[in-house]
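Reviewers of the previous submission asked for a worked example of the structure-prediction workflow described in the proposal, so we include one complete record here. The input consisted solely of the amino acid sequence. No template or homolog information was supplied to the procedure at any stage.
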Amino acid sequence: MRDRRDFVQTAVCGLAALSLPIGASADEVSGQTGRVASGDVSIFYRRFGKPGKTPVIVMHGANYFDSYDWIGVCQKISGDREVVAFDHRGFGESSWSPSKDYSIDAKMNDMRALFATFGWKKPIVMGHSASGRIATSYAATYPDDLTRLIIVDSGFDREEGPAGAKLLGDSPMVFPTIEAAMANFARLKQVPRIGRDRGRAEQALKKVDAGYQLKRDPDFRNPTPIGGVAGKREIEVWDALPLIKVPTMLVRGLKSDRYPPETVARVQKAFPQFQWASADSYHDIPFYAPDELVNAANRFIADV
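From that input alone, the workflow returned the following structure tokens.
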């Protein structure tokens, strides 16, 4: 268990990632927000920077994250390019799919809808945690439609994405108080920001009659739309990696459990062309070590 001094230091570091000089506009702080229609959902996004070098799309993980967690990182890599972070369907401010379509097809189509809206042809794709698997599937499925790939602490040997059958009908997560929600996530071995930062928790919850509901469709892992035809299954990571054509960097948290030594050794042996970076961080790297992640990303994409 980490002591209070460690917690305070972590919270300050995470909040510092959201700060900008005095006089910065709201758009500069939290991004220019907007929505894009994709299939049966409305996708919420935050847009940073101005057109310049190759743009970057940033995708959050699943337990529990959305674009809010990436504001600080997006600010700091958008100095010479556009950067967009968005909430996956069923998460955050994006709408829940009426047909419960959380298939890999739907998620890749959401990405392509965003690219079309911004006029992006071959962006840089960055995916954290479960979105590392989505990003890998995208790079394998559309190998000529991105410029570089950044996979952030995504577990290749654990189930984090929507693959596999999932029954519908789970109940939303509702907590009596915001503090109760934070305590729930603080019990996790790899504590995400929602378990440490009250401001983040307030953003992640909405008031309902029974208390505070997590802004996440409980059926977010459902792989096939209701009454629909099953599309592509998510390509298994180890099958997708050989299909990636673009320069790729993997970022791992040294205190995270996503990359055990045997996984690192396997990737390094099979794919020596991949670059590696590390951060002195738990799984929630954009909160615990934002500057290390920014520095690694900026070095990797500087010439693009």
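Residues 32-165+221-301 form a domain with the Rossmann fold fold (CATH 3.40.50.1820). We consider this example representative of the routine output the project will generate in years two and three.
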